[in-house]
Amino acid sequence: MKNKSEKRGVMKKIAVITGADSGLGREYTRLIVKESDVDEIWALAKTPARLQRLVQDFGDRIVPVEIDLTQLCLLYTSPSPRDRQKSRMPSSA
Hints:
Mean pLDDT: 81
Oligomer: single chain
Strand order of the largest sheet: 1-2-3
Number of helices: 5
Number of strands: 3
Distance between the termini: 13 Å
Radius of gyration: 14 Å
Low-confidence stretches: 89-93
């Protein structure tokens, strides 16, 4: 099911940042939150606690994605952040 903005033909702007929980990745995240009109920031990192800290520090535009990109096979089997959000939402039956 499409969200309201997609129904009107407007797509979300999404930034994807790897290693978002520390170093340059965290700095990029901070800059994008501060200076960008991006709708969602998909923050990819290995450490769940540090990902949650990003959400606390930078707000609800952060979509935490726990993944180890050194394990490439996970990229093909992991649900996307959008799929994860949909699975938490109650169905409208």
